[in-house]
Amino acid sequence: MPRSRGGAEEMPMSFGLYVLGFLIVIGGLVYGAVILHVPLHWIVVGAVVLLGLAISTGVNATRHKDPAA
Q: Total structural domains in the chain?
Protein backbone atom coordinates (compact mmCIF):
# COMPACT_ATOMS: atom_id res chain seq x y z
CA MET A 1 0.00 0.00 0.00
CA PRO A 2 1.57 3.33 -1.03
CA ARG A 3 2.14 5.81 1.73
CA SER A 4 1.64 9.55 1.62
CA ARG A 5 4.43 11.78 0.32
CA GLY A 6 3.96 14.45 2.94
CA GLY A 7 5.42 12.58 5.92
CA ALA A 8 8.81 11.17 6.70
CA GLU A 9 7.60 7.63 5.93
CA GLU A 10 9.16 5.84 2.97
CA MET A 11 7.41 3.65 0.43
CA PRO A 12 8.60 0.07 0.89
CA MET A 13 10.70 -1.40 -1.94
CA SER A 14 9.34 -4.51 -3.61
CA PHE A 15 11.24 -7.77 -3.32
CA GLY A 16 11.56 -8.04 -7.10
CA LEU A 17 13.25 -4.66 -7.43
CA TYR A 18 15.59 -5.48 -4.58
CA VAL A 19 16.70 -8.79 -6.10
CA LEU A 20 16.93 -7.25 -9.60
CA GLY A 21 19.35 -4.63 -8.32
CA PHE A 22 21.39 -7.28 -6.56
CA LEU A 23 21.49 -9.39 -9.75
CA ILE A 24 22.90 -6.41 -11.64
CA VAL A 25 25.64 -6.08 -9.02
CA ILE A 26 26.36 -9.82 -9.19
CA GLY A 27 26.54 -9.64 -12.98
CA GLY A 28 29.07 -6.82 -12.80
CA LEU A 29 31.20 -8.71 -10.31
CA VAL A 30 31.08 -11.89 -12.41
CA TYR A 31 32.10 -9.92 -15.50
CA GLY A 32 35.02 -8.36 -13.62
CA ALA A 33 36.10 -11.77 -12.33
CA VAL A 34 36.03 -13.21 -15.87
CA ILE A 35 38.17 -10.33 -17.14
CA LEU A 36 40.65 -10.97 -14.29
CA HIS A 37 40.79 -14.67 -15.29
CA VAL A 38 39.46 -15.96 -11.97
CA PRO A 39 38.80 -19.73 -12.20
CA LEU A 40 35.20 -20.51 -13.15
CA HIS A 41 34.46 -22.63 -10.09
CA TRP A 42 35.30 -19.67 -7.80
CA ILE A 43 33.10 -17.36 -9.87
CA VAL A 44 30.18 -19.79 -9.47
CA VAL A 45 30.78 -20.13 -5.72
CA GLY A 46 30.86 -16.35 -5.31
CA ALA A 47 27.72 -15.85 -7.39
CA VAL A 48 25.78 -18.48 -5.42
CA VAL A 49 26.84 -16.97 -2.10
CA LEU A 50 25.87 -13.47 -3.27
CA LEU A 51 22.53 -14.74 -4.58
CA GLY A 52 21.78 -16.30 -1.19
CA LEU A 53 22.74 -13.04 0.49
CA ALA A 54 20.47 -11.14 -1.90
CA ILE A 55 17.49 -13.33 -1.11
CA SER A 56 17.96 -13.22 2.66
CA THR A 57 18.51 -9.46 2.82
CA GLY A 58 15.72 -8.86 0.31
CA VAL A 59 13.24 -10.80 2.41
CA ASN A 60 14.40 -9.02 5.54
CA ALA A 61 14.17 -5.56 3.93
CA THR A 62 10.80 -6.02 2.22
CA ARG A 63 8.77 -8.15 4.62
CA HIS A 64 5.77 -6.53 6.23
CA LYS A 65 5.86 -6.10 9.97
CA ASP A 66 3.06 -7.65 11.99
CA PRO A 67 0.64 -5.03 13.34
CA ALA A 68 0.82 -4.40 17.06
CA ALA A 69 -1.94 -6.13 18.96
A: 1
CA nearest 29: which of 65, 53, 64, 58?
53
**pTM of model > 0.90:** no
- 35 found inside a domain: yes
Distance CA 1, CA 32 (A): 38
What are 26-54's pLDDT values in tens digits? Answer: 999 999 999 999 999 999 999 999 999 99
